[in-house]
UniProtKB/TrEMBL annotation:
Bias (Gly residues): 67-76
InterPro entries, A to Z: P-loop_NTPase, Sialate-O-sulfotransferase, Sulfotransferase_dom, WSC_carb-bd
Protein family membership: Belongs to the WSCD family.
Residues annotated as transmembrane: 25-47
Record's protein name: WSC domain-containing protein 2-like
Record's keyword terms, sorted: Membrane, Repeat, Transmembrane, Transmembrane helix
Highest taxon above the source species: Eukaryota
């Protein structure tokens, strides 16, 4: 009988099998080495994909900001810093992944820019619609500019010296995804009048252009994040003039420009410290008032006055800036005012007149709610009321992050009676009827929904990731929360015993008088000095930076149709109670 022979290919496998069966230790060593090698391959592929994945896949912070900083060819951050913004940035490493809509093409250029010319075709690229009002372009697609930016106009190509910048405000760099829109938005967010782009990737902000203009052909480098637009060149800036909203704060170094104001009747009483300064400049006056620990620096020609906002000098009556146009003796490009009209800046000095806060010494009999839909400015309004009155406000909830930020009322039970007002987002008859009166905050639902979505996925001053906005979370959130925005207001109007309606937008627009009305509603005495102090510190610790605002509209046509219908419902309910309807800027968005 003939014995079947083993197939030739099976012999090596059989030998390996017999070997490991006889020596199991070798078998387990082999398995361990195999798994280790597989893990290394997996990790390597993961790191490699980090450099090519789009911004939509994860959340990464934008670069921080520097004052004056160095750009292409060297330079360093100025000694002034950014002061009130408290952020310093200088590009020293490879730029991290940034957010960006999917139509922004990936630029695989190296972080160190090329200095060689590229032979740019000026017929196929633009300066973001040169000489026209722009709405922000990304790869040829028009986008709606944020309300704070409004619009801009390209004005020309200018020289930029690393030792003496043409625009001397804040700056930031992104050597992969810089766009005209992004630079404009960041500068407008900080209240600057001009935004300039250099070397395809660098953004500079300023109030004045302190350099000569040159031929347009010298601004010939395409933007790193959009090939359809030009972003300056080597030591050349493509500069835009921005149209700022009234709420934007213009800055000079670490100081905030407040405006041009008429000389107060009793200047010695209104601004108690003053001095004549040789070769006057904004820096010298601001430095003097900062050293003397005053929050205001007022330039009047060769004289510098220092003080605080008071009923004698409220900073409410702005004058035309042309009345203050007088060149500083020690500075060619800034105005120093004159004997009749002062140029005023807010220094870094903190006004301490409204910082003391305490609990009520005895229990109150009534309860007043500070009610709002989440994301409608409740925490901000609470901050304002605490500063204006000196009393701690309690909360219907306990939020440890708010407690750690200074809201000590988070620790007390809301029925303890040790407060003048209680923060709540509750709705429903039972919860509302537990309060004797209420201040009802209402905000544009388009803004409130986005603010609450950011808080839910990013914290009180953080941001939701791009993946959350692009994923299923955002549509589901709008579906569930938009009806709540309307029902929250309708419930408080229906079941509230005594309701004062305050629109978030009105409070931002006219803080002094609206906050004064809220304090009177609470039955408290108004201190105008405290209210003026609040105006200088209105943002507190809970204002989100504009660095990571979405560069596209997240609302679909179907979402807008639903929300517009809810706005009309709330507007009708308000008018039926003989109240003013929703503000005009709710519609159209």
């Amino acid at each position: 009988m003939r014995v079947a022979r083993e197939p030739i290919m099976a012999r090596p496998l059989l030998k390996i099998h017999r070997y490991f069966r006889c020596k199991p230790v070798h078998f387990f060593s082999f398995i361990l080495l195999y798994l280790t090698a597989g893990s290394l391959v997996f990790l390597h592929s993961g790191f490699s994909s980090d450099t090519s994945t789009t911004g939509a896949s994860r959340s990464v912070r934008d670069p921080l900001i520097s004052e004056g900083g160095g750009g292409a060819g060297g330079g360093s951050s100025t000694s002034d810093g950014l002061g009130l913004l408290g952020r310093v940035f200088k590009e020293t490493r490879r730029a991290p992944q940034r957010f960006g809509p999917p139509w922004m093409k990936k630029n695989r250029a190296q972080d160190v820019p090329e200095w060689a010319g590229r032979g740019v075709d000026h017929h196929t690229r633009s300066h973001g619609a040169k000489g026209k009002t722009t709405k922000g372009m990304d790869d040829g697609r028009e986008q709606t500019v944020h309300a704070e930016t409004s619009s801009s106009k390209y004005i020309g190509c200018y020289v930029d010296d690393t030792q003496k910048r043409a625009l001397r405000g804040v700056s930031f760099f992104d050597y992969k995804k810089m766009t005209v829109f992004r630079c404009q938005d960041n500068c407008a967010e900080r209240g600057y009048l001009y935004a300039g782009l250099e070397f395809g990737a660098e953004c500079y902000c300023g109030h004045k252009i302190q350099a000569p203009n040159v031929s347009e052909s010298e601004c010939n480098m395409e933007c790193k994040g959009e090939k359809s637009n030009l972003c300056g060149g080597p030591k050349r800036l493509s500069i835009y003039r921005l149209e700022l909203s009234q709420e934007s704060a213009r800055r000079y170094g670490s100081a905030i420009f407040k405006g041009c104001f008429k000389r107060p009747d009793n200047v010695t009483l209104a601004l108690p410290a003053s001095a004549v300064i040789k070769n006057m400049s904004v820096d010298k006056c601001v430095d003097m008032c900062t050293e003397k620990e005053f929050s205001l620096a007022a330039l009047a020609g060769e004289k510098c006055h220092c003080g605080f906002p008071t009923p004698l000098f409220t900073l409410h009556d702005h004058e035309d800036e042309e009345l203050c146009l007088q060149r500083c003796a020690g500075e060619d490009f800034e105005s120093c005012g004159n004997i009749d009209f002062f140029v005023v800046y807010q220094t870094q000095v903190q006004d301490n007149r409204c910082l003391d806060r305490r609990f009520l010494p005895s229990r109150t009999s009534g309860t007043v709610a500070l009610a709002s839909f989440p994301g409608a400015g409740n925490t901000w309004a609470r901050h304002l009321i605490e500063l204006a009155t000196g009393w701690e406000l309690l909360s219907y909830y306990f939020d440890g992050s708010l407690y750690n930020k200074g809201f000590k009322g988070e620790r007390d039970h809301w029925r303890s009676g040790r407060t003048i007002c209680i923060k709540t987002h509750e709705s429903g008859r039972k919860e509302i009827e537990a309060f004797d009166a209420s201040i009802l905050m209402i905000r544009n639902p388009y803004k409130a929904l986005m603010a609450e979505f950011n808080r839910k996925y990013g914290g009180h001053i953080g941001f939701a990731s791009q993946a959350h906005w692009r994923g299923t979370e955002w549509p589901e959130f709008v579906k569930n929360y938009a009806p709540w925005w309307a029902s929250h207001t309708l419930d408080w109007l229906k079941y509230g015993k005594k309701v004062q309606v305050v629109h978030f937008e009105d409070l931002k627009r006219d803080l002094f008088s609206r906050l004064k009305g809220m304090i009177i509603f609470l039955g408290l005495e108004v201190s105008e000095d405290r209210l003026l102090c609040v105006e200088g510190q209105k943002d507190g610790n809970f204002k989100r930076s504009g660095l990571r605002k979405l560069e596209y509209d997240p609302y679909t046509a179907e979402m807008r149709a639903t929300i517009d219908g809810l706005i009309r419902t709330v507007d009708t309910a308000l008018r039926k109670r003989n109240l003013s309807g929703v503000p005009e800027d709710y519609r159209p968005r």
